[in-house]
Amino acid sequence: MILLRRVIGDALRARRQGQQRTLREVSTAANVSLGYLSEIERGHKEPSSELLAAICDALGARLSELLREVSDTVALAEQMPEVLVSMQDEPADVAAKTTNRGVRQVTSDGKVAVSVRQDSPLKATLRSTRVRPTERDRDVVCAA
């Protein structure tokens, strides 16, 4: 199961880091405490719609763009239930596709590439990127 708050936090973190901005800079611009923004990015807290809009504004992003990215990531995770299978439970043919770092590449419909890193038996990191980016689709979304 993928948690919406984690996907939202990862998308916000990816945007902030892509701009090479600190938590302090964004938290000040969004008028939210640094600690609370950090918890949102780590997926520990789920922001209200007002707070999410303020953070997006501070990042110079449209709320609709962020929500589209989050929706795309969740949709991918729903289409690939085997992505979040414990490594101990993986079939032998899937385990063979896994690299020594626990990363395996999955491609969906030729437009999105998904890499999955199994961090522990109960935690996986899902990273999706557009294979053929257009001007509109240039962002990287990470989920854990």
Commentary on this structure:
With 144 residues, the chain is α+β, with helices and mostly antiparallel strands. It contains six helices and four strands; from the N terminus they run H-H-H-H-H-H-E-E-E-E. It has helices at residues 4-18, 23-30, 34-41, 49-59, 63-79, 92-96; strands at residues 103-108, 112-120, 123-130, 141-143. Strand 2 (112-120) and strand 3 (123-130) form a beta hairpin. Helix 1 (4-18) crosses helix 5 and helix 2 (23-30) crosses helix 4 (49-59). Mean pLDDT is 76; it is low at 84-100.
Q: Kindly report how far apart the N and C termini lie.
A: 10 Å
Q: How many H/I helical runs?
A: 6
Mean pLDDT: 76
Instruction: Please indicate the percent range of residues in DSSP E strands (runs of 2 or more).
Output: 15-25%
What percent of the residues sit in helical stretches (DSSP H or I)?
A: 40-55%
SSE string: HHHHHHEEEE
The rounded Rg comes to 16 Å
Major sheet attributes = 4 strands, antiparallel
Structural class: alpha+beta
**Strand order in the largest sheet:** 1-2-3-4
So what's the overall shape? globular
Q: Nutshell version of this structure?
A:
The protein is of the alpha+beta class.
